Amino acid sequence: MKKKIAYISKTYGVPLEAIRISNGFFVFGNPDQAYDPTHIHPYAVRKEHVRIPLQTGDAELDFLNELYTTALRDGVSPIVCRWKMAALSSLMVTIITTLKYKLKDMRLL
Length: 109
Fold this sequence. Notes:
Strand content: 5-15%
Structural class: mainly alpha
Number of helices: 3
Distance between the termini: 52 Å
Largest sheet: 3 strands, antiparallel
Order of helices and strands: HEEEHH
Strand order of the largest sheet: 1-2-3
Number of strands: 3
Shape: elongated
């Protein structure tokens, strides 16, 4: 449980003391507002939806693991996320390749 609370603190940017457990939820103040223990704008995440992504040391794989766990937490299909990431990756390859040829044409590369 402590690992999940630490992960929420890091991911949402809220102080550890601002996170409490209530009726199967991790509850904390709205991360968009400054922490004020006397005035809470509740934000809640089901305990079972908090998954700590696997860290591999490979930045791209770690990002995909983070995206996957975020999709599961938010109820979005991880398959759809994977398709969108593949499309984004293809687009980036196209942009980089085009830029490379443009720079060669301009004799900057």
